[in-house]
Design brief:
The radius of gyration is 23 Å and the shape is globular. It is 40% helix and 16% strand. Helix 5 packs across helix 9 and helix 12 crosses helix 16. The longest helix has 23 residues. The protein is built from 18 helices and 14 strands. The protein starts with a strand and ends with a helix. The strands form two sheets. The chain has an eight-stranded mixed sheet, with helices on both faces. Strands 11-10-9-12-13-14 form a six-stranded parallel sheet, sandwiched between helices.
Length: 468
């Protein structure tokens, strides 16, 4: 079968959980004899004039062809979230032509960001079955994470989504928001969505005309976003969620569809090894793996280490790309100071993950947002590496407190410090948490389940085209 794997970004520049999952899935499908091509987006952070013919590049990664559409910043940045990231009509037209050119049998989307719902619509136009795996909260949240500008958790779009309008403007204009929009009242964000029912304040009327116009256009498009997502999910032959938290959020916002099913993420376990000396050293080796960004809660972990300043036999090693948020990384370095117990170790190749886990006594996941059963959490369980995690949905459905890990309240560095100290002082508990680790779905098992979904999806389309 000719299968296209589609996602928002890909190797070699990007290598977070979604990218690893897509890569491993593509490799296993290829090993089984399927013809695989990967489609992805790439967003330039600087203004460049690219015409459509020169904004597409093709390369090979791990013996699999990759086609990448390069997008550039929108002339009006407020519209970028809709025009480029959600309703990318250019990507849709190009992708429709690609489906014909490559004779694609099925498309599996691991993320629609930067490609937009138009890519799924293109598949429907060409009668190509689609499978959607929802790896985060993008279908509910325009920013993908359900996180407020102050890094607290958002409960999702209001009706109408005035809160989304405000949060997008805060995200886009992070450094100039107060000067441009700071005088606005909450009613001013509801007004463009109210069809005249809410009267804007004098501050809204005082906005510069281009800002008012952009705000109105963005509001109009946001107002129809959940409806667009609902029709997109319904048009897919299968919608796969990996966690109960995603299923719950879809239900709360009216996005649950009959074609939805639960399938946990799979892991490449071919080189899985187990630590033979975990917990046997005097030093407790604490680890972190993930993006070095605020929502991953690295600052909470460093604050916890400050609470343990007298515990010289607790060492922390942090693996992650430090260039994603340079300002935040500088803050972390200041927080770590001269503490030689703390090491920022950079990144490592995905195939080395089991080796890295073998050098940890425990892994800390201090995320301040829900997460979606992250691969690093599942990998830690597979490696029998005890986990200390935030007690938020998405992590607490995998970790049971004092059974296969420890949980602490989100953002509470004091409680996190107590959890670390507990494992340091109670090595039998550390061993018990390791023994109780939950077995995980292998990539072989995961792809076997996907193949069943693919076959069913193809048959559904064939029956539609030839019902008799």
């Amino acid at each position: 079968m000719k299968i296209a794997i589609a996602l928002h970004q890909y190797f070699p520049e990007y290598f977070a959980g979604t990218e690893v999952l897509a890569m491993r899935t593509a490799q296993e499908l290829r090993r089984r004899g399927h013809d695989i091509i990967i489609y992805t987006g790439f967003h330039l952070k600087r203004e460049l004039m690219l015409d459509p013919e020169n904004s597409i590049d093709e390369y090979v990664h791990n013996e699999i062809r990759v086609k990448r559409l390069i997008t550039v910043p929108h002339a009006h940045r407020d519209m970028q979230y809709i025009d480029f990231d959600h309703e990318n009509q250019f990507f849709g037209r190009w992708f429709e032509a690609e489906l014909e050119r490559e004779k694609v049998s099925l498309v599996h989307f691991f993320h629609m960001f930067r490609m937009g719902t138009e890519a799924v619509a293109a598949c429907s136009m060409k009668n190509v079955p689609t499978v959607l795996t929802l790896t985060d909260f993008w279908t509910v949240c325009p920013l993908g994470q359900l996180v407020l500008p102050d890094n607290n958790i958002c409960q999702g779009p209001n009706t109408p989504p005035a809160n989304c309008l405000k949060h997008i403007l805060q995200a886009i204009h992070a450094h100039t928001y107060d000067a441009k929009y700071g005088a606005l009242q909450d009613s001013d964000f509801a007004a463009p969505l109210s069809k005249g029912a809410v009267k804007p304040s004098a501050a809204h009327a005082a906005l510069e005309a281009p800002l008012r116009s952009s705000m109105q256009e963005l509001a109009t498009k946001l107002d129809g976003r959940l409806g667009t997502m609902k029709s997109t999910l319904k048009s897919a032959k299968s919608v796969i969620v990996a966690s109960n938290v995603v299923a719950r959020l879809l239900s709360e916002h009216g996005l649950t569809t009959e074609n939805q099913s639960l399938l946990p993420f799979g892991l490449d376990l071919t080189k899985l090894t187990f630590s033979e000396d975990r917990g046997s050293h005097k030093i407790l080796r604490v680890g972190f793996m993930g993006s070095i960004i605020p929502t991953k809660g690295v600052h909470v972990l460093l604050e916890a280490m400050k609470q343990l300043k007298t515990a010289q036999d607790v060492k922390l090693t942090l693996f992650g790309k430090t260039s994603e948020n340079p300002v935040y990384f500088e803050q972390l370095k200041t927080l770590a100071g001269t503490d030689d117990r703390i090491t920022f170790a950079g990144t490592f190749p995905p195939e080395d993950i089991w080796k890295v886990f073998s050098e940890f006594d425990c892994l800390v996941i201090p995320s301040t947002w829900y997460e979606n059963t992250p691969l690093v959490l599942l990998s830690a369980q597979a490696a029998r590496c005890p986990v200390i995690a935030t007690d938020l949905d998405g992590m607490s459905e995998v970790i049971s407190h004092e059974h296969n890990g420890l949980l602490f309240p989100s953002g509470d560095h004091q409680s996190l410090a107590e959890c670390i100290l507990k494992l340091h002082n109670d090595r039998p508990l550390l061993a018990r948490l390791s023994e109780n680790a939950k077995p995980q779905l292998s990539m072989v098992e995961y792809v076997s389940e996907l193949e069943k979904i693919y076959e069913k999806s193809v048959v559904q389309v064939q029956k539609t085209l030839a019902p008799y």
